[in-house]
Design a protein that fits this description.
The complex is a heterodimer of chains A (about 230) and B (about 280).
Chain A lengths: L1 E8 L8 E8 L4 E5 L6 H8 L7 E6 L2 E2 L8 H5 L2 E5 L10 H10 L5 H14 L15 H13 L5 E5 L7 H16 L3 E6 L12 E6 L2 E6 L11
Parallel strand pairs in A: 3-8, 3-9, 6-7, 7-8
Antiparallel strand pairs in A: 1-2, 1-4, 4-5, 9-10
Helix pairs in contact in A: 3-4, 3-5
Chain B lengths: L1 H13 L1 H37 L2 E6 L5 H13 L3 E7 L1 H12 L17 E6 L6 H12 L4 E5 L2 H42 L2 H9 L4 H37 L8 H29 L1
Antiparallel strand pairs in B: 1-3, 1-4, 2-3
Classes of the chains: A alpha/beta (about 230), B alpha+beta (about 280).
Chain lengths: ~230, ~280
């Protein structure tokens, strides 16, 4: 599903943020991506949705390879992914339902199909009744749920979340994590990037990729892993 | 297309202040350019009107040989730039003089001889009504032995020449500057409008919108804003032109087609401005 093969990447020719990364994520897996700030977590996620192309190596997402993909095909790859950000990235001038529907509108889906899917995902994420609310009328937790609803409405094979709880208090953060685990149990893979280690408490069985200074220093789930302290 | 139109119209209403600013910038730029063109059009009409008044009067001696006068009239008519040469006899000239005097024409009754000379009245073709060409024809007429004096309003013509030169130089320079300022103003307004919506472009991209989908809705929006700006400018120019026509006659107004051009110029500026501003953001992610 997602495969990194000896990937190195950076934002300019002379600097590398990631070096020699190799891993793969299978269907329906739940994976934590951890590491201190600046370790390359967001860069790794950008490589998955092809905002960034590797300098060396290859990233394969479903049938798309970073070495072969044409620029105009990237939107079709992104439609197979659900992406969630720390700042929610909701459009303030659209209602919650319009924000979610937006993800399907750009794919030229029919109006009735969009209505049906939006209603379903709102119910699934406990957002029923909030359809007509604008983002600023919702709590931070609800806003993140709407962002997750938008990510899920296209039925992606994987949900990619970049610090999704960064702007939330601990109780709401745990709620969002529980929601993601639920989503995963329904068959969608989840890749959750975080440097909030409290989220990982009691999640020893979950697979975890740990980055340090742009290198993948741990890939496993033995529960004995001690987080690398932030510098 | 329906969804693109919907996005374009929604974008319009959702970013009201930015849309208003872009429309206003377009309308203002086109208004200034339009009014400037209108002023130029009227100045050129004034120049044409003044030039139409340019004529050469060649006064003939009383003893001029009629045969030679007839031949000279024919020769002068054939010179480059000459539109028409009319011969005015002494008798006709006196009648005209009398008519000009009106109630004071009694003054002429005691005259024993006709003091008014016969003349050639030479008019020039358009494009030849400047000092250089008029003087050349006046010199040709003066060279005729039976011509006593030639008058062509030398000073008057010199002022027309200067006026024409000033209008063309100032017109071209100020027109180019105003056009440039207009383009900068409109493109800045569009850039700000696109910049204010970069989050929307980002969201569109991460949910899998193709560049052509994003571009279509922004271009349509830019086109509509530009067209509305153009329409406003055309309406204001029309109003100004009507007010002037009513208060100060005669004024040369734009033809209907010109108003359509203003509208299309606005739409085109909106379209091209959006295309250029959007390119940066589309390439980014």
């Amino acid at each position: 599903m997602i495969e990194f093969h000896n990937v190195s990447a950076g934002y300019s020719r002379n600097s590398r943020v990631l070096e020699g990364i190799s891993f793969h994520i299978d269907k329906s897996e739940f994976v934590f991506l951890t590491g201190p700030s600046g370790s390359g977590k967001s860069t790794l996620l950008k490589l998955i949705f092809h905002e960034l192309i590797p300098q060396t190596g290859e990233v394969t997402v479903a049938d798309f390879s970073s070495n072969k993909i044409k620029r105009r095909k990237i939107p079709y790859l992104r439609r197979k992914l659900g992406i969630v950000f720390q700042d929610f990235a909701l459009l303030e001038n659209r209602t919650a339902a319009e924000n979610v529907a937006f993800a399907l509108e750009v794919t030229n889906a029919s109006r009735s199909f969009i209505r049906m899917r939006v209603a379903r995902v709102f119910t699934q994420l406990g957002l029923a009744g909030k359809e007509k609310c604008f983002p600023q009328e919702l709590s931070a937790g609800e806003q993140q749920r709407v962002a997750i609803a938008r990510a899920l409405v296209g039925e992606p094979f994987i949900l990619i979340a970049d610090e999704p709880t960064g702007n939330l208090d601990p109780a709401i953060s745990m709620d969002i994590l529980r929601l993601m685990i639920e989503i995963n149990t329904l068959g969608t893979a989840v890749l959750l990037a975080t440097h909030d280690y409290s989220l990982l408490k009691g999640k020893d069985d979950f697979r975890r990729l740990h980055l340090s200074a742009g290198r993948l220093v741990y890939d496993g789930s033995n529960g004995n892993f001690a987080p690398v302290p932030e510098d | 297309m329906l969804r693109t139109s919907k996005e374009a119209i929604l974008g319009f209403t959702r970013a009201k202040a930015m849309s208003f600013f872009a429309i206003l910038a377009t309308a203002f730029s086109l208004l200034v350019l339009g009014l400037f063109s209108l002023a130029l059009l009227n100045l050129n009409a004034l120049i044409r009107y003044l030039e139409n008044k340019v004529e050469i009067m060649a006064y003939l001696r009383d003893n001029a040989d009629p045969g030679l006068v007839g031949l000279a009239l024919e020769d002068l008519s054939k010179l480059e730039g000459v539109h028409q040469v009319r011969y005015m006899s002494k008798q006709k000239a006196l009648e005209n003089f009398r008519a000009d005097l009106g109630p004071d024409s009694d003054l002429l009754q005691d005259l024993e001889t006709n003091p008014v000379p016969a003349s050639f009245n030479i008019t020039m073709k358009p494009g030849y009504r400047d000092t250089l060409h008029v003087k050349r024809i006046a010199d040709e007429a003066q060279a005729l032995t039976f011509v006593e004096e030639v008058d062509y309003g030398r000073e008057w013509l010199r002022w027309i020449d200067i006026f024409k030169h000033v209008v063309s130089v100032v017109g071209a320079t100020a027109g180019a500057l105003l056009g440039l300022v207009g383009i900068i103003l409109i493109s800045s307004a569009i850039k700000i409008a696109v910049f204010s919506r970069q989050k929307e472009i980002f969201v569109m991209k991460i949910v899998g919108a193709t560049n052509s989908f994003i571009r279509r809705s922004f271009l349509l929006e830019g086109f509509l804003k530009g067209a509305i700006g153009g329409l406003l400018a055309a309406g204001m120019i029309y109003t100004v032109s009507e007010i002037f026509s009513y208060k100060i006659r005669p004024v040369v107004a734009f033809s209907d087609r010109y108003y359509l051009y203003i509208l299309l110029a606005g739409a085109l500026m909106g379209l091209v401005g959006s295309w250029i501003s959007l390119g940066r953001y589309l390439r980014r992610i």
